[in-house]
Amino acid sequence: MALRTLIARNPLRAAAPVASRGIQTFSLPDLPYDYGELEPAISAEIMQLHHQKHHQTYITNYNKALEQLDAAAAKGDASTVVKLQSAIKFNGGGHVNHSIFWKNLAPIRVSTPSNV
Fold it and tell me: What angle do CA 65, 54, 90 make, to 5 degrees?
């Protein structure tokens, strides 16, 4: 959204002050299972660390870069917008990839034949 706003503006004109534009922020998704449900393949401690620290870092940095992008676009600062693209791509991609990763993991469900 912010990039479209910047492109649509004449970069040589002073940017009009914009009230809070309400940029979207992202948050850590809940897992569809408990941290310990993937043991013994993945320990609960590793799952918690990976989810709460590693994935959360991508989200924190993604939100920060989006806020900076919104501010730069509001000022018409194309140079900063371009510089932020790699941070947005890296951290946004990390968030999306981890969100997919969590859904692709599943606890091992041991079933027993009911007619034995």
Answer: 40
**pLDDT tens profile 1-42:** 444 444 444 333 333 333 346 789 999 999 999 999 999 999
How big is the chain by its Cα radius of gyration, in Å?
A: 21
Q: Which pair of tokens denotes residue 65? A: 């870069």
pTM of structure: 0.74
DSSP 1-58: -HHHHHHHS-TTSPPPP----------PPPPSS-GGGGTTTS-HHHHHHIIIIIIHHH
